[in-house]
Every structure is written in structure tokens, then in C-alpha cells.
Amino acid sequence: MLSPSAVPLLLSYAAAAVTGVAAFLALRRFNREETVASLRQDVRDTVLLLREPPTVLVTGFRAHGKSSFINTACRALAAEAGPMLLRAETSPPVTHSATIDRCVVRAAVAGGGSEAKEEEEEGTCAEVALVDAPALPEPGQLTRVDVEEALSGVPPPECVALVLRCGGPAKDRHAAVKKLADVATAIRQRGLQFVVVLTHKKRIKSMRQAEELRREIAFRARTDCVYFIENYTVGNMLNLRRPWATKNNLETHYTVLMIVRQCVEFAKLRRSHSVIRATDGGGGGGSGSSTRLLHC
Ligand SMILES: Nc1nc2c(ncn2[C@@H]2O[C@H](COP(=O)(O)OP(=O)(O)O)[C@@H](O)[C@H]2O)c(=O)[nH]1
Ligand SMILES: [Mg+2]
After folding, report:
1. Minimum mean pLDDT among 14-23, 46-55, 98-107: which range?
2. Which atom of ligand 1 is nearest to the CA of 96?
3. What one-character DSSP code corresponds to residue 130?
4. Cα of 200 to ligand 2 centre, how many Å?
5. Is residue 238 lining ligand 1, measured as CB closer than 6 Å?
6. Does 27 score more than 50 pLDDT?
7. Which of 67, 78, 133, 280 has the greatest number of C-beta atoms within 10 Å?
8. What is the pLDDT of residue 295?
């Protein structure tokens, strides 16, 4: 039986435990926020070195989340909070209408600290050009010519983000995944590198299912650069207490910044190769540029 005098002691133990857990969670969140900030800074540093903004073509089938991915990238790159700003027009979930015109969204990459302010004053702003392209025809009708047409638009892409929905009817998903090998081959033959972005991550029910899908996609597209993401969408904005406010999600921020960083590195690699070709006719020699091939 617990003596009455032990109750205050127990209560103070409980309070200490709660405070400890809260401190631990705060520290973990702080560390994750730091990681996101340093990833963004990494993207910014590389983009500033490149001078001209790298161009990433965002392509894929209709209503798979291309425009939403661009909006998500813009939010994370600009380190925005509060209401979600939509740079690319997304289709309502019911109609699934498609983007008709190719549009280029220039995503600003925010910096931290005083040097970012100085750079802004000097007019050197870091940007990534994200091209929201009209959708590829449905998988059953997609031909090689369609993919080549998508890749040959203006501005010419330096890297491709191939967006694929992982939720939705299994039949549609299988058809899209089956076409991946053809799309990947066409992209490679253009001398471009690509990443595969799997949207609607929350629809994946288990780790096992995610791993199976990742493996199948990696096998078909012959790449390890496969990412799962839950995009920020208009649906996320329906917060009853604060309408139109979107809460940032560290996992979404982290993933989208990892994807953009990979794309920027691919663009850097492509530019350094064209410098080598231009200076010595492709006969070898180094450009002195240190491009990192990131582990996807
Ligand atoms: N739940 C969820 N919905 C998404 C995601 N990405 C896109 N959507 C929704 O899917 C629909 C089509 O997206 P959209 O970006 O317009 O597709 P696009 O045609 O490929 O540009 C929209 O209603 C989006 O709100 C995601 O990751 N998760
Ligand atoms: Mg769109």
C-alpha cells in the first residue's frame, strides 16, 4: 500500500519524466530542423556556383502529382511557413484535368545567416527552374516519340524528375510501372540523368509494400534514385482552426530537398561534361570541377 507521504515524491518523478521526454522530443525536432536547413544550404551553395539556374523537367502521367511536387519543392526551398502558395496549378482530385501548357517555375532557394542577406543585396539569388510539363499520354498509348517530344521542349532540361503516383488503382499503377523502362531508356539516350518521385506515400500500407515497389521501380528504370513523398496539396490546407494554414512536415521537406539536391548535382555533372567536350573535344582531361554523385 502506498503511504500518503510518497505521493508528492511520485508526482515529482512523473513530472521529471514528462519534462525529460518533452526535452528529448524538442531536441530531436531541433536536430531534424537543422538537417533540413543544412540540406537547403547545400542546394543553395551548389546553385550559386552554377550561376545559371539548373533546369529540371518534371514529367509523368496525368494527375500523378507533378504540379503538386513543384509546389512542394518551392515551399521547402523557400523555407516558407503559413499558407501554402501555389506556383503550379494542380488539378482537383475529381476531374484529374491535366496541365496543358509547359510552364517554368523559378523556385528561390532561401539561405540562412548574414551572407545570404549580402548575396541578396548584390542581386545574386539562387534559383532552380522547375518545368511543369503537359502530361505524357496514358501508359497504354505512350510511344517513344511522345517521350522524346516531352524531353525536347524549351528550356532544354538538364535533369528529369519522373513523377509516378504510388496510390490509386493497382491496374493503373502496374501499367505505368511497366512503361517505366521505355521512358527511362529514352531519357538516358538524350544523355540526361533522372530521379523517380513516387507521390501519395501515405497510400502505401506497409514497409514491405514500399520496399517491393521501390525494388520493382529500381529494376525497371535501372536507377537507385527512387524517392517516396507525400506532397503538400490543397487538401492539406483544410485546417478547421486556422483555415488555409499548412503545417510543414519535416519528412516531406527532407525528401523534396534530397530530390532537388540530387537533380542539381546531375545538372552540375552535365555542365562539367559539356565544358570538357567544349575545351578538348571530349578527348579527356579534367575540368577541376568536383561533382558529387550522391547516394540515392
Ligand atoms: N494525398 C496526396 N495527394 C496528392 C499528392 N500529390 C498530388 N496529389 C493530388 O493529386 C491530384 C493531382 O495532382 P497534380 O499535381 O495536379 O497532378 P499532375 O497532373 O501530375 O500535375 C491533386 O488533387 C493533388 O492534390 C500526394 O503526394 N498525396
Ligand atoms: Mg499538373
Report:
1. 14-23
2. 12
3. E
4. 15
5. no
6. yes
7. 67
8. 54
Which atom of ligand 1 lies closest to the CA of 91? 16
pTM as predicted:
0.84
pLDDT digit string, tens, across residues 186-208:
999 999 999 999 999 999 989 99
In the reported structure, the alpha carbon of residue 7 is separated from the centroid of ligand 1 by a whole-number distance in angstroms of 54
Distance CA(102)–CA(281), nearest Å, equals 34
Length of the chain: 296
Q: What is the DSSP letter of 191?
A: T
Parallel, antiparallel, or unpaired for β 226-228 and 194-199? parallel
Backbone phi, psi, residue 227, to 5°:
-125, 140
| 11-278: CATH superfamily | P-loop containing nucleotide triphosphate hydrolases (3.40.50.300)
Give CA–CA dist 64/166, Å, rounded.
8
Choose between 250 and 31: higher pLDDT. 250
Tell me how far apart the alpha carbons of residues 126 and 261 are, in angstroms, rounded to a whole number.
13
The tens digit of pLDDT for each residue in 162-172 reads 999 987 788 88
pLDDT tens profile 118-153: 555 566 689 999 999 899 999 999 999 999 999 998
Q: Which residues contact 243 (CB under 8 A, 6 or more apart)?
A: 237
Instruction: State how far the Cα of 98 lies from the Cα of 134, in Å rounded to an integer.
Output: 7
Nearest ligand 1 atom to the CA of 233 is: 25
Cα 171 to ligand 2 centre (Å): 22
86 lines ligand 1 (CB under 6 A): no
Q: Where are the domains of the chain?
A: 11-278
Amino acid at 4: P
